[in-house]
Write a structure and sequence with these properties.
The chain is built from nine helices and 18 strands. With about 425 residues, it is of the alpha+beta class. The longest helix is centred in the C-terminal third of the chain and has 37 residues.
Length: about 425
């Protein structure tokens, strides 16, 4: 499912138009005010990020040796490529060139390449065979309106910051040197064209500089003027189908000249600061430009701990403490192979096993009913069969004899059980001792 931008409601549209009619803007700016511009450079030459308010553009310049065009054998080539990724806005679809993207790329080429801001003849290495091909890749990181202005600033700043490797020619061989072998060579730039956008509302009645995204959705037409600090017009483009008077266009060119001079001064200061930091060996790059935000509300101030008189207090505590009695421990043998030194929990290792073995031996000694004894201790079992008991009818005399013998055997078994209990009690007493 494709993501689309959320459309503006009628209430939002009316609010924006009413605010513009009252000479007010959503972000508190005046009619001709630009948003804050921030320029940061990467660790490599030709890499920078330009922030125009919340609109952010990343620019990266690269170069390679290529064959020139047959029509211009002594001139290098410059190629611009702007990409609108879905990361910047859900309205942009990946893998498709929208009408907006084609229009922006053409406008960039007209603003920078057709204005001859870079000396392309200085990019020639061997006439008709080898020239430098400069490529400027622009990535929109966040979209909040006025893409063309941010992209033009990022492109010209990156080209001004870029340095190509040095080259030597011996016969037909071309040798490219690294930055360690020879110093890099900057590009020769004649001037810095910068695009300034003007948004018109209600058929040209109201005019705004540097429109944001919500203002771009409501506007009726857009006028883009590219100019350098010498007030030389590089390109001009009107879109939206509105009719503009020549007085309005001249008024916009005057405003653009003031804004371009301010932006050019800001760009030159940023380039000079980066150059000085690299010379002095300071820290530079995108990581250094990120503000270091830390939570400091939970941090406590360092407090000195008083250490006076601690040794005296420690001696008093030691003197008042009771001395432990010198007791010589005696080993106690609880069971064979075990021992206990000092007082503590009774060691029951192997004691339970010994008692279980004794109980099993005593259970074997207990005679069963129906067994006959021979002598004092020997007992012989008549049978271990699990069959049912048989009742035999005999004479009265025989039954009386059997009753007497059964009473005698019961008395003997009770005596043996009582003796086994006495033995258990004596063994437990010994183990406790």
């Amino acid at each position: 499912q494709e993501m689309r931008e959320t459309p503006l409601s009628n209430c939002e549209r009316q609010l924006i138009l009413q605010a513009i009619a009252d000479r007010q803007r959503l972000d508190g700016r005046q009619t001709y005010d630009y948003r804050n511009i921030k320029i940061t450079f990467g660790t490599e030459y030709g890499c920078c990020i330009v922030e125009l308010g919340k609109t952010r553009v990343l620019a990266q310049v690269s170069c390679e040796l290529a064959t020139p065009k047959p029509s211009r054998p002594t001139e290098g080539t410059i190629f611009f490529n702007l990409e609108l990724s879905p990361m910047a806005s859900p309205a942009f679809e990946p893998g498709r060139q929208s009408e907006l993207l084609v229009k922006l790329n053409r406008l960039l080429e007209r603003c920078l390449r057709n204005s001859k801001c870079i000396d392309t003849e200085s990019l020639c290495v061997v006439a008709g065979a080898k020239v430098w091909q400069i490529r400027v890749d622009l990535h929109l990181l966040n979209h909040d309106g006025n893409i063309i202005d941010a992209a033009s600033i990022a492109a010209i700043v990156a080209l001004s910051h870029f340095k190509r490797p040095d080259v030597s020619i011996q016969g037909e061989e071309v040798t490219v040197y690294t930055a360690e072998e020879r110093d890099l060579i900057p590009l020769s730039i004649h001037h810095m064209p910068i695009a300034v956008s003007f948004a018109f509302f209600q058929q040209g009645t109201y005019l705004l500089v540097d429109p944001i995204e919500h203002e771009e959705r409501v506007m009726d037409g857009l006028l883009v003027i590219a100019m350098n600090k010498h007030r030389e017009l590089c390109t001009i483009q009107s879109s939206g189908g509105i009719m503009l008077l020549k007085e309005q266009i001249l008024r916009c060119t005057k405003i653009a000249g003031v804004k371009v001079a301010e932006i050019t001064e800001l760009m030159q200061k940023a380039l000079e600061n980066d150059k000085n930091v690299r010379k002095e060996g300071g820290k530079f790059g995108f990581a250094e430009s990120v503000p270091n935000k830390r939570i400091t509300s939970f941090k406590l101030d360092e407090v000195a701990v008083p250490t006076e008189g601690i040794e005296e207090q420690a001696e008093e505590i030691v003197s008042k403490a009771e001395t432990s009695p010198a007791v010589i421990p005696k080993p106690i043998v609880r069971a064979p192979g075990t021992g206990q030194i000092g007082e503590g929990i009774q060691n029951e290792w192997m004691i339970n096993d010994l008692e279980d073995d004794e109980d099993e031996d005593e259970e074997d000694i207990v005679p069963e009913l129906g067994a006959q004894s021979l002598g004092n201790e020997e007992i012989i079992h008549l049978s271990d069969s699990e069959e049912e008991e048989m009742v035999i009818l005999e004479a009265e005399g025989c039954q009386k004899k059997e009753k007497k013998t059964s009473k005698g055997t019961q008395q003997k078994t009770s005596k043996i059980i009582s003796q086994n209990k006495n033995k258990k009690i004596q063994r437990k007493k010994r183990s406790q001792l």
